[in-house]
Amino acid sequence: MRHNNAGRRLGRTTSHRVAMFRNMVTSFLDHEKITTTDAKAKELRSIAEKMITLGKKGDLHAMRQAASYIRDKKVVTKLFTAIAPRYKERAGGYTRIIKLGLRPGDNAPLSVIELVEEQLEAQVPKKTAPKKTAVKAAVPKETPKPEAVTAVDAAKASGDSPAEPADVLKTEAPPTNEECEAKAD
Question: How many Å apart are CA 163 and CA 181, to the nearest integer?
Fold first, then answer.
């Protein structure tokens, strides 16, 4: 019976399992996304979230605690300077696990564990728009219509001879490059 024994053993000795998770959390925080088996991803999630929580504390003691578990000093620096400030308003749930399917070699279920990218923002209650009165709603807005240009007028503007009869209406041609550059200045 495994009463009060939390965590998965994963068929490894304790020292192997601890070393494996130290390596995995270092790689995970460095790359912010790794592919592994479902069971390892579920165990890694709790360790990684504890490291991010230490990063959110930001004091020297928390930095030393994180450095005692994470194997790379650059990753510890990245955790405290880049990753943890991203989640300062978020109260947990920094990772997501996406199941990929089965691995071809041994049919093991694979997953991607990644950091949640969107930042949690304080939700501001939406203001309701003032209701329109019957008088304002009854008056329709007039929309400006594009000017109709005859083929003769378009040909005169471009310097070409008219190719189509004069009674055919066309919409205004888009501005040429010279006009656009003049407007930009």
Answer: 28
Direct distance between the N- and C-terminal alpha carbons of the chain, in angstroms, rounded to an integer: 80
What is 17-62 written as a DSSP string? HHHHHHHHHHHHHHHSEEEEEHHHHHHHHHHHHHHHHHHHH-SHHH
Residue-level pLDDT at 60:
97
Residue 119: the pLDDT is 47
Amino acid letter, 167? D
Dist CA 124 CA 34 (whole Å)? 35
Contact 108, 100 (CB under 8 A): no
How many C-alpha atoms does 24 have within 13 Å on its Cβ side? 24
- 3-state secondary structure string across 132-169: CCHHHHHCCCCCCCCCEEEHHHHHHHHCCCCCCCCCCE
From CA 71, how far away is CA 34, in angstroms rounded? 17
Residues 103-139 pLDDT 10s: 999 999 999 999 998 644 556 566 676 666 655 555 5
**Which 3 state secondary structure label does DSSP give 115?**
strand
Strands 169-171, 148-150: pairing kind = antiparallel
Low-confidence ranges of the chain (pLDDT < 70): 118-127, 129-185
Using only C-alpha atoms, what is the Rg of the chain? 32
Spatial distance between the Cα atoms of 36 and 47, rounded to a whole number of angstroms:
15
